[in-house]
Amino acid sequence: MNRYREISSALLSWYDRCARDLPWRGIHDAYRTWISEIMLQQTRVDTVIPYYKRFLARFPSLTDLAAGDEAEVLKLWEGLGYYSRARNLLKGARQVVEEYSGKLPKDPRLLAKISGIGPYTAGAIASIAYDIPVPAVDGNVQRVYSRVFGVRENIRLPAERSKLDKLAEVLVPQDRPGDYNQAVMDLGATVCIPGTPNCDQCPLSDFCNAFERGDAADLPLIPGKPASRIIRWTVAVITDGKRTLVRQRTESLLQGLWCFPMLECSSEETPSMLVRKFHLAAEPIRNSIHARHVFTHLVWEMDVLPLRTAAGKKVPAGYRWVSTDELNALAFPAAMNAALRTAKELLREEEL
Ligand code: SF4
């Protein structure tokens, strides 16, 4: 047996003993694999499981999803983050209905042309759902391979990236390619983790260059990320006694989700200056509270300010007054959690 086959068979035996029991495992269903893989991008498995179950209870098939509306899809995605994933999923489902009669194609090149499906997801769907021997290379897999094969150059460089892609292609076996890809993903998520890996539990330690050299914690080599940009906002939670003011975002970040009125502010701006900007004659009712939300390349530092205005005030275009029930029905991003809690508290107090 050559070294590559020894590695893949060691990984598969480990997978047979230690595979995580996950709701999307053990089924050959391309739609379910697609949903799980999209939800798992940048998101922990434990977080994904309840979202996955709720999503499939509402949209049990690809055609059900294609017939769904965006507001409902976003509501089911609420709190999971990276909302463009949800919008692209819906767009992709409609594309599959139109171009492939509702069945995801087997060919990874065709899969990669569907909205929201990149090379990694195409490889995952083709191998897991259709047993096609193609790799699925994400950050976890790159980490494992860069350690096992001792790739000590910047893996963002195209030459190094293509080295890892070629290794991945050679390693994926003809037999059980889907299980093999899931085995590497599991290994990267539970054993060969970022920072100091758990080499004592690893089925690949006999083959691993970084283990032998003792520098696994330094790999893969990724140049420092650029610093996150910080934006300061005042988030106005404005009530008229029965309702609160919200706005559906049209910006590309969090597009389609609902937020409270927000004003980007310099450190010199005060709450009363903000109120004037809204032309609402609103009065602060409590001190503001601070909230922080970290996006991939961006941090929002927010002062959430509760305000009271007279009932029946006209609002700028794009804004809407909503009751507590409507507030519960709309999809808000996690960045608005503190403001949402404040709004519900204010409305509850008004009811008492
Ligand atoms: S031996 Fe350690 S570094 Fe190498 S693949 Fe296993 S966990 Fe990762």
What do these coordinates show?
The chain has two domains: 3-218, Orthogonal Bundle (Endonuclease III, domain 1); 229-351, Nucleoside Triphosphate Pyrophosphohydrolase (Alpha-Beta Complex). Helices cover 45% and strands 12% of the residues. The protein contains 15 helices and eight strands. Strands 1, 4, 5, 6 and 7 form a five-stranded mixed sheet that branches. It is elongated. Iron/sulfur cluster binds next to helix 9 and helix 12.
What is this entry, summarized?
The chain is 45% helix and 12% strand. With 352 residues, the chain is α+β, with helices and mostly antiparallel strands.
Computed over alpha carbons, the radius of gyration is 24 Å
Helical residue percent band: 40-55%
Q: Biggest sheet, in brief?
A: 5 strands, mixed
CATH architecture tag of the largest domain:
Orthogonal Bundle
Count the E strands: 8
Number of helices: 15
Low-confidence stretches at least 5 residues in length (pLDDT < 50)? none
Query: What is the name of the CATH class of the largest domain?
Result: Mainly Alpha
Order of helix and strand elements from N to C terminus: HHHHHHHHHHHHEEEEHEEEEHH
Categorize the overall geometry: elongated
